[in-house]
Amino acid sequence: MGTKRQKTAHHTINYETLTFDEVLRNVRSLEGPPGEGLIHAWIAEVPASESAKVLSAIREGVDDTVDLKHLKRFVKTANGTLRTLVCSVDHMKRPQLEELLRSVTILNITEELVPGIYPTTKEVSLELSAKYWPISWKGNPLVQELNELKVDVPAVKKNLEYIAKIAKETTGKQLPIVTMMVDSRDPQRRVVSVDSRETNQLAHSVMRCIQEVADHEVERRKLGEERDYLCFGYDVYTTHEPCAMCSMALVHSRVSNLYYVNQSPVTGAIDPQSGSGYCIHRALTLNWKFEAWHWLEELDVDKIAPDVFV
Ligand SMILES: [Zn+2]
Fold first, then answer.
1. Which domains does the chain have, with CATH numbers?
2. 28: Cβ–Cβ under 8 A, 6 or more apart, which residues?
3. Ligand 1 center to 247 CA (angstroms)
4. Helix, strand, or coil here: 234?
5. Sorted alphabetically, which keywords does the UniProt record give (predicted)?
6. Which residue among 3, 82, 107, 109 is the one 20 to 30 A from 282 at the CA level?
7. How many whole angstroms from 198 Cα to the centroid of ligand 1?
């Protein structure tokens, strides 16, 4: 991955441990999608003199939903002709393809396997390129993604210290689990909830927070203020890594960031090392993703029994 640790515009990032400024760890699974992600594509071989023509035919007639932008368009053969990547086989049948290329001199049309997914390492990129069809390698996508993230670390620390203090004040049967949700566009707009499962089994602190944001939202909508998704733009601060139910609710309400202090190694649904390794905030099958962050600096938050679903 090149340099292990690097100072970027916003942070000092360690790309191996995914830590930012040594106090926040970006939580995500580093595994790419399973398999080589191969797809079937149409390859048309044309004389080199036809390159402009074939390109313009593709630009005009192909509107492929399969993303092939990471692949090279042309491969030059030993005898000087050009093998041209046209589109995925799913996008059009052969008669349509021939119709599309009717003004171009075609030497040969074949159906071939090409890499359908941009790889996560240069090594894999080279391997797939040699085996199937060349990829335009533009650097490690993880490094690029991490470099674009920007966190107000002092503000995060302050908010986590605040909920840790409230957790310390819980008494009796209440679990010391506290969540705060802050509207990142208007940080004065915030709600705080303590776990209340002693009165209602499902009253986990995250669920209570979302409910409270929903209640506020109803009031605001009465006043004519329209907003898209329930918690869109909200950042979530919580003392313990949330369970699957709460994590799912955070995905559905479309929060931006989740910050937590203690990992829940048995029942957590965020860290790939926790519980069943769901990593729900980045699940490929769900239509929303958010960033999750584990606070690494010492902060006084009570441990709870490992079998408790936070
Ligand atoms: Zn929960």
1. 38-116 (3.30.70), 151-295 (3.40.140.10)
2. 18, 272, 279, 282, 292
3. 7
4. strand
5. tRNA processing
6. 3
7. 14
Output the CA 207–ligand 1 centroid distance in Å: 7
ipTM of the complex: 1.00
d(CA 274, CA 158): 26
CA 305 to ligand 1 center in whole angstroms: 14
Distance 267 CA to ligand 1 centre (A): 9
Name every residue whose Cβ is closer than 8 Å to that of residue 181 and which is 6 or more positions away in sequence. Answer: 190, 191, 209, 210, 212, 213, 231, 234, 235, 236, 237, 255
Ion ligand 1 residue ranges (Cβ < 5 Å): 204, 243, 246
Question: Per-block average pLDDT, block size 10, for the chain (310 residues)?
Answer: 76 94 95 78 98 96 90 96 97 96 96 92 93 94 90 98 96 92 93 95 96 88 75 95 97 96 97 93 90 97 95
